[in-house]
Design goal:
250 residues, alpha/beta, Rossmann fold, 17% strand
Length: 250
């Protein structure tokens, strides 16, 4: 039985990951920032599938809180699973803050850097002592690290950094048999970034026309892939970038 930690698991991609992993027979600790009711609802859905789950509060914009969070994880593992380690970490939590380079503020840039670059680095660092040897890490990136779309420069820069971080994790954690891979979604119809892909019909149509499979992605497209990446079938893949975009901007 495997235990996952999925940041940002109360909604969107993280929720779909947790539910798909439950269907696969895996348990999860999901984190939420402010949506406790949503996180509790995800826990109930996981339990309804016959698996165990815990929701913990975590603000990834505050790395100074990561020591306390690691202590909460340790307590949850002991109380719910009678274990002192977990198996898989998915660095998924994030925000979208689009805007052109010409008007980007230093405040927004720093916020994106903390949430998308600094947080995954130091959260992983704090949790590694609790991860079992032979575990796995997924860092969520974006198709925007491969193609360029106006107004997303700071966000894409951070995701590019995460992809480099993934390769270094794979190299440095090899002696512990811990693998690390990047999952890079394309345009997905969730509430991320204000729900632009989901709610703006013209934008959605434009992206669909530029996608080889003729549509934008849904949360379950990514959740199912994350579950596959954390299955035994993915055991020999390490240090790789897996893009799930349906063939966007090929």
């Amino acid at each position: 039985m495997k235990i996952n930690i999925i940041t940002g698991g109360s909604r969107g991609l993280g929720k779909s990951m947790a539910l798909n992993l439950a269907e696969q027979g895996q348990d999860s600790i999901i984190t939420y920032n402010s949506r406790k009711a949503d996180a509790d609802a995800v826990v109930k859905e996981i339990v309804a599938r016959g698996r165990k789950a815990v929701a913990l509060q975590l603000d990834v914009s505050k790395p100074e809180s990561f020591d306390a969070f690691a202590a909460q994880v340790k307590a949850a593992l002991a109380q719910t699973w009678k274990r002192d380690t977990f198996d898989h970490l998915v660095n998924n939590a994030g925000i979208g803050a689009p805007g052109p380079i010409a008007s980007a503020s230093e405040e927004t840039f720093d916020q994106l850097m903390t949430i998308h670059l600094k947080a995954p680095f130091f959260l992983t660092q704090k949790l590694l002592p609790l991860m079992t040897d032979g575990g796995r890490i997924i860092n969520v990136s974006s198709g925007l690290a491969r193609f360029s779309y106006p107004a997303y420069a700071p966000y894409a820069m951070m995701k590019g950094g995460i992809e480099v971080f993934t390769r270094y994790l794979a190299k440095e954690l090899g002696p512990r048999r811990i693998s690390a891979n990047t999952l890079a979604p394309g345009a997905i119809a969730t509430d991320f970034g204000g729900g632009a892909v989901r709610d703006n019909a013209a934008f959605r149509s434009q992206l669909s026309e530029q996608t080889a499979l003729g549509r934008v992605g849904e949360a379950d497209d990514i959740g199912a892939l994350a579950a596959a990446m954390l299955s035994d079938d993915f055991r020999w893949v390490n240090g790789q970038r897996i893009e799930a975009s349906g063939g966007l901007f090929l």
